[in-house]
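Help! Submission page says 'invalid entity' but I think these are all valid:
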Amino acid sequence: MRKFVAHRAKKLITNATASLFNPHHQSSSSSSNQYYTSARLARFFTSLPSDTSMASDKSTPPLTVDSLNPKVLKCEYAVRGEIVSLAQTLQQDLQANPGSHPFEEILYCNIGNPQSLGQQPITFFREVLALCDHPTILDKSETQGLFSADSIERAWQILDQIPGRATGAYSHSQGIKGLRDTIAAGIEARDGFPADPNDIFLTDGASPAVHMMMQLLIRSEKDGIFCPIPQYPLYSASIALHGGTLVPYYLDEATGWGLEVSELKKQLEAARQKGITVRALVVINPGNPTGQVLAEQNQRDIVEFCKKEGLVLLADEVYQENIYVPEKQFHSFKKVARSMGYGDKDIPLVSFQSVSKGYYGECGKRGGYMEVTGFSPEVREQIYKVASVNLCSNISGQILASLVMSPPKVGDESYDSYFAERDGILTSLARRAKTLEDALNSLEGVTCNKAEGAMYLFPQVKLPNKAIKEAEKAKKAPDAYYAIRLLNATGIVVVPGSGFGQVPGTWHFSSWMSSVIRSDSFFFFFEREKRLDTMIHLDVVRHLKKCHALVVPLNDTSIRE
Amino acid sequence: MRKFVAHRAKKLITNATASLFNPHHQSSSSSSNQYYTSARLARFFTSLPSDTSMASDKSTPPLTVDSLNPKVLKCEYAVRGEIVSLAQTLQQDLQANPGSHPFEEILYCNIGNPQSLGQQPITFFREVLALCDHPTILDKSETQGLFSADSIERAWQILDQIPGRATGAYSHSQGIKGLRDTIAAGIEARDGFPADPNDIFLTDGASPAVHMMMQLLIRSEKDGIFCPIPQYPLYSASIALHGGTLVPYYLDEATGWGLEVSELKKQLEAARQKGITVRALVVINPGNPTGQVLAEQNQRDIVEFCKKEGLVLLADEVYQENIYVPEKQFHSFKKVARSMGYGDKDIPLVSFQSVSKGYYGECGKRGGYMEVTGFSPEVREQIYKVASVNLCSNISGQILASLVMSPPKVGDESYDSYFAERDGILTSLARRAKTLEDALNSLEGVTCNKAEGAMYLFPQVKLPNKAIKEAEKAKKAPDAYYAIRLLNATGIVVVPGSGFGQVPGTWHFSSWMSSVIRSDSFFFFFEREKRLDTMIHLDVVRHLKKCHALVVPLNDTSIRE
């Protein structure tokens, strides 16, 4: 444990070790049991005291879990699944009984949520949002002192684009036309090819847009959607909810999560042999959770493949601003297709964008859009209808989506501060990506590909056979078992690779790179000491002055090989 | 046409009449054709020029409308359906070619969207939202001059409830816990019975909450959801999208849209005979589009019925603040159930609330919640999972949902202005409801029940047999035909009753009562002159100084009886 071990750390290690070595070890709280059963987790969601919630009653509850929609039961969403529910329960324990667990707080690395850990929003964006929320202050003299001149000007521009300047009115089902104009102009500037505001559908984040496309395309379990493995679990969840079949294509870990067209061909053939009609191909670029950035030639091959096979190309491009290596650049699939000479009629293509990612990180604002090209008017009409059923996406999110596609420009009053804020965030993300990647690769039994983009790392962990057998006994995937033990011992929330998909027999976990975004120097990292079954978590950042080390799950003789 | 006819009106009538009498009549714009074909409407949604959009191409488009999910094709959403698409096309025509239609602007009465027509938001709510969007100004001296003291205090309170004060972070999947505490307290204060924050799921308006419940409950077309007829088309759309069966129960127009338990029993029996498992009962109170407010005894009967038959009670209570008659009061179904002695385990009950309605009318903010009681922990866990797949609802909407459930109180700095704003809106709504109801009832061939609550009137219109036959020829429901002609002649957008459901052989339309909210004296109204087939629209408000009359659809000899 070397120099990081302090008195406090020793105490924490003692607690952690006790609970890890002895499953019956009880601390001051009864909640410190090592594992939470699903029944116990379920109780977390109910308002009833646990001892009465299932009590018998004169009236039989009319609804049992077995009588629910089986598609809902089948759906899994790992990034907010069992691990996160357990984390929330532990967090409640910690609040109710401080000291009841061998850590002081929960470190959520399950999902990229930058502002939850102190990343500051871009000032200009928030100024504009505040002014649009409360336009009556726009004319007041105090406002000049509080807000930048260009934010005031932009707010006026946006209000003028909204019929009646009513930011509290339902908009057009696709979103406010003027904001779509701005977004289309932003896409044109990015790609160098025309974009049409009528192709833009503004949505509450990218997730509802993905659902909308799945709803449109999936008729039955005989319809397949091609997804990368590993994939972001939104796709598997949405396909399950809509009753389709996820057709996997494997990214090649050995070549930095490469996407090979030969693999696509092989898997498409296999799916067709099973009677599956593959309708669309999901590509996530930059990759989530894998962090690779596709080469342009690779993108061309994918476009050609979709064209030839008649697949709708669903391009998840929400990390388009998150690129960390100088040798890679983001190219939208639309730009690639257009540069190949394919026009609107040649290939059906949907590009998803979100305000939650990039340097903006405005997850809670739920803004996003999809750009829909290459569909017939009749199909488009159906997309419009589905969008209409929810009336419109939230206007603040719509405004923010227009802002991220048209930030301040050179010469604007806010430009310098905007650029500094943006650059600070992106530089810090790049540094942390590299730090974490190096830290993970320095560990015996852990390998991690280069983080070229996005916000996550997806290291492979070699687990001892005995640990795998223990997991089987507990009816958990080995990496889920690992993640639960990691959480119980350290408070760190990672998502097991099995939630994303992985080559059978390999085990991974996904970790958001920014969980200690408050510091710009280190990410948490793991260091193995001596043996494969002893991993040390050095949380040097969150407790900078009193560094401590925590023994994490594999330091448990019961599962040591 | 009496005294309202002016020179300008005559010209407009001439135009309108010409186009009504002669389907080949062309005005300066080619867009003034009397009806828009669905192909033409479809073109509205595409970016392609109409003459090339369907041109043949080397590559066959892989996706045709016939190959889409049939549930999507089946889904209809009348309040933003064909009529609204036509209205948008006409609006574009008017912009491109002013004078191309016999009206100057489109009057959207299809949906309650108060701020789109100038209803001002509650100042206190917007102050708090702006401060939460841009919290860095909270400490600045200028802010004291711009914002009320209690809005600043409330913003601090809310920020303190958000982990890291991060309004740009994803929240808990059910919404920010502190805001759910506030909402639960608001429900308790409203009902006099306990409410649990763990029962609250914050959503982007009420619509996604309704979808979530349908997704949970519907397994196949053999599962039925009981809905009032007429109903708000969200329900029929959502049931269609999820592949279930809408089981109708008819509200009794003769008794003010009464909901009779005998009718429920009859329809339940009929559905069961057809092999339908009825899983839930939707009640909309106050009624949409029918405007009735249920009597408490009636609510008790409904609760008892659901309990006895094992139905989930889905209570759409989004108009709870919109009651216009002194003899009626809003009682939540949860309050009614609890006052009958039924606890959490006795009846599964979901109450939907939204920030879009009431006196707040914040449709564009997409805030809302559902309060979920009486489900087993296992079922609750599934609801939580589905909520998690979209991560969380937008934070501004969440904040607003907490504000509408805990507005300023007596003694707060903002209370007087808040009360005046609220009272002004509700008083004006009540006056307009009465004015419109009286105006409609004064027309021969039109009958309209009392508008006790909500925001719409749903008059019955007796259509001439010849008009019905013309509609059949055009393959339109007679009331849809009426609505299209009304729109083409006057620019007024109403929704045909067939989009909501109605007793076969009766015809209605739904009109938002607030379309002229800018005035507090009159709503648009119809006046019949001499004969059933001549209806005069007296738009005395929007053109107050140059009153004019427009002959609306039925004044067409081609469809006169």
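Support: the input was valid. A stray whitespace character was the problem, and the output above is from the cleaned input. Chain B touches chain A through 123 residues (CB under 8 Å).
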